[in-house]
Specification:
With about 150 residues, the protein is an all-alpha fold. The protein has one domain (about 10-145). Helix content is about 75%, strand content about 0%. α3 runs antiparallel to α5 (about 110-145). The longest helix has about 35 residues, at about 15-50. The protein starts with a helix and ends in a 7-residue tail after the last helix.
Length: about 150
């Protein structure tokens, strides 16, 4: 009988069990909050990268001409105004979120929200990098079209 009493004393009592459940629920809420705290800076970074290609400063073969700075400003504005790249970046983020949610759900932990967040960041980042590269190419081609010897 002494061994049974010792074992039973190790089992949580009802109030201990309720505290344990409460701690688990708080821990889950904190995980969700942490995911959002990670997402906000990442989304801001992706948004900042999306416009970076329009600010590209090209390398010239030789000295810039007198009209180079005004042409550069005009070509950068042209690249910056290509809004379809922003829509493509959003589309890539949405596709990434969908794929991430599916993969997150089939994962052992079944975390569709976490998968969606990671997928959206991955898709958005890829879209922003692509948009930045395309804007950079617009600046280069625009300057070449205006007669500047741009090499990169």
């Amino acid at each position: 009988m002494g061994q049974t009493a010792d074992r039973n004393s190790l089992l949580p009592t009802a109030p201990d069990h309720e505290r344990l459940i409460g701690a688990i629920e708080i821990n889950e809420e904190r995980k969700i909050q942490m995911k959002y705290l990670i997402v906000i800076p990442a989304v801001l970074a992706v948004a900042a990268c999306a416009d970076s290609g329009a600010n590209y400063q090209p390398i010239l073969d030789g000295q810039p001409t007198a009209g180079f700075q005004s042409d550069l400003a005009a070509c950068q504005a042209l690249a910056r105004n290509q809004n379809q790249f922003d829509q493509e970046t959003v589309g890539a983020a949405v596709l990434g979120a969908g794929a991430g949610a599916i993969l997150g759900e089939v994962d052992d932990e079944g975390d569709a929200l976490g998968g969606a967040i990671v997928g959206a960041l991955a898709g958005g980042t890829a879209g922003a990098v692509n948009a930045g590269e395309r804007r950079e190419a617009i600046v280069v081609e625009c300057l070449r079209g205006r007669g500047h010897r741009v090499v990169g």
